[in-house]
Fold this protein.
Amino acid sequence: MSSGAARGDGMLAPLGRRAGPSPVQLLTAAVGNGLGDSLLFAFRKFKELPEPLSCEVVAQVGRNAEGRGRCSSGRGTRSSRAPEPCTAW
């Protein structure tokens, strides 16, 4: 492999077909996963069954002064049904 290809200066074709998630989608998925995991941990710590558990994250995408796309704000909500005493522990 030549040093030009190792630097990634355009000699290699990109992999994939841009069919994957966008960076904002990955960010919102990570935030939602963190919110849901923390709520589940708290319920289980106090021996309660929170299921079904849901989490929704909405992100606002905008541009900064240089015109680059940025996630300007976001909002996350998490919910569950009324907790019941946990008998599985």
Observations:
- The beta strands are 48-49, 53-63, 69-80, 84-85.
- The longest strand covers residues 69-80.
- The longest helix spans residues 23-45.
